[in-house]
């Protein structure tokens, strides 16, 4: 019989202890893999969507709320700002690009955003079908919106007031779909885009004094622009400047303690898995000392006995790793559903980052370390004494 087969039979024979070791190992690997995968994808999503945005101008309120509503559309806006603020900043020499945003309505839960062509360029968004909006009440649909609602070029719909589809319907005007966007893996996938004037018109705003925007996305020519624009807008108490990168750091810090606690839990379970493997192998060697003694008398060398122990622990490591990876992917799939529903953020379960690859040698090493003492004890078995005790 091969050493591998004997090792497998030993695991099956002690199935309860083996199952406990595999379960603890699998749970720890699943948690570590899930946490690092989830964290990496969320970080990437947040950072990708603020690329090219140095400043946000919004109504006075919570800077974090302004960032979440203006960039990710997952919170209510802090209010509106006068259109004249946009006109003033548009002419400023330190402003490289300024993108107006007007929003507050939705269709089937997806935000309808009035903006200009620069917003498409910000995300390198390309048309899959149709054209960009050029006439009143024409809209371009993001990839996820089109896929979820099965919208096509030529379809029309009534918008609803607010962020939720239960809001009051604007039944007097219909939006017409004229374009569908390719997938951009960005927040634009979740939006319905129209012209700023359409947002005003659907709310029957015609006079210049009443024309407002929700926020402005600004790209600066150089960092000095932050100080200059802050001084420029200081006299206007109705607006605020928000630095999205600063707010992202704040957001990550808010969730930092929870992440550290979960990391600690994962590594604690991993430590318990190592202890479980160690105790299981130690008890196994104690139980099988007569078997080991017989193997030695029949010509099996110390190396063969050592291999037997190592193969056994490597089989446990392999099963634990595979089960752990499967559990982490199930967790990511479940979390993807939650994130898409609540935050319009997609989480992939098919990615295998460097962390997952590093878990392979880490799992092997810790399992071998856990089995070293039992293996050494098996090598030092006093053959004569064990056989004498048995007889």
If you had to describe this structure to a student in words, what would you say it looks like?
The protein has about 400 residues and is of the alpha+beta class. It folds into 2 domains: about 5-45 and about 255-390, no CATH class; about 55-240, no CATH class. It contains 14 helices and 13 strands. The protein has helices at about 5-15, 15-50, 65-70, 85-90, 115-120, 145-150, 195-200, 225-235, 245-255, 255-285, 290-295, 300-345, 355-380, 385-390; strands spanning about 55-60, 80, 95-105, 110-115, 125-130, 140, 155, 160, 175-180, 190-195, 210-215, 215-220, 240. The strands form 2 sheets. Strands 1, 3, 4, 5, 6, 7, 8, 9, 10, 12 and 13 form an 11-stranded mixed sheet that branches. Strand 3 and strand 4 (about 110-115) form a beta hairpin. Helix 2 (about 15-50) packs across helix 12 (about 300-345) and helix 12 runs antiparallel to helix 13. It is elongated, with a radius of gyration of 31 Å. The model has no long low-confidence stretch (mean pLDDT about 85).
> What helical percentage do the residues reach?
55-70%
Q: Which class best fits the helix and strand makeup? A: alpha+beta
Strand content: 15-25%
User: How many helical stretches?
Assistant: 14
Number of strands: 13
- End-to-end Cα distance, whole Å, is 26 Å
* Rg computed from alpha carbons, rounded to a whole number of angstroms: 31 Å
User: What spatial form do the alpha-carbon principal axes imply?
Assistant: elongated
Estimate nothing, just give the exact number of structural domains.
2
Characterize the quaternary organization of these chains.
single chain
Note poorly predicted spans. none
Average pLDDT works out at: 85
Biggest pleated sheet: 11 strands, mixed
The SSE string, one letter per element, is HHEHEHEEHEEHEEEEHEEHEHHHHHH
């Amino acid at each position: 019989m091969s050493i591998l087969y004997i090792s497998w039979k030993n695991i099956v024979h002690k199935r309860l202890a083996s199952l406990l070791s595999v379960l603890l190992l699998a749970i720890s690997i699943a948690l570590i893999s899930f946490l690092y995968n989830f964290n990496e994808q969320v970080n990437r999503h947040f950072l990708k969507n603020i690329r090219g945005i140095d400043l946000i101008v919004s109504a006075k309120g919570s800077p974090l709320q302004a960032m979440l509503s203006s960039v990710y559309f997952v919170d209510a806006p802090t209010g509106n700002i006068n259109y004249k603020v946009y006109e003033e900043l548009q002419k400023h020499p330190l402003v490289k690009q300024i993108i107006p945003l007007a929003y507050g309505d939705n269709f089937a839960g997806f935000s309808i955003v009035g903006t200009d062509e620069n917003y498409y360029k910000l995300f390198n968004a390309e048309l899959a079908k149709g054209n960009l909006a050029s006439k009143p009440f024409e809209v371009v649909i993001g990839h996820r919106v089109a896929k979820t609602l099965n919208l096509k070029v030529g379809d029309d719909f009534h918008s609803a007031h607010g962020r939720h589809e239960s809001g009051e319907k604007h039944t007097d005007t219909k939006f017409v779909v004229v374009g569908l966007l390719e997938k951009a893996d960005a927040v634009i996938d979740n939006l319905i885009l129209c012209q700023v004037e359409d947002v005003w018109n659907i709310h029957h705003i015609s006079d210049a004094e009443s024309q407002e925007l929700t926020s402005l996305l600004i790209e600066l020519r150089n960092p000095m622009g932050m100080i200059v624009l802050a001084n420029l807008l200081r006299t206007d108490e109705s607006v605020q400047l928000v630095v999205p990168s600063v707010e992202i750091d704040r957001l990550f810090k808010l969730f930092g303690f929870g992440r550290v606690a979960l990391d600690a839990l994962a590594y604690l379970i991993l430590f318990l898995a190592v202890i479980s493997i160690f105790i299981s192998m130690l008890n196994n060697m104690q139980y099988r000392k007569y078997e080991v003694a017989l193997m030695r008398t029949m010509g099996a060398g110390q190396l063969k006995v050592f291999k037997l122990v190592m193969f056994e622990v490597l089989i446990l490591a392999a099963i634990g790793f595979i089960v752990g990876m499967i559990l982490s992917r199930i967790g990511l799939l479940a979390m993807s559903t939650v994130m898409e529903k609540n935050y319009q953020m997609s989480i992939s379960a098919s990615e295998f980052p460097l962390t997952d690859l590093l878990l392979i040698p880490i799992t092997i090493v810790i399992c071998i370390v856990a089995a070293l003492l039992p293996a050494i004890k098996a090598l030092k078995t006093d053959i004569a004494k064990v056989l004498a005790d048995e007889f």
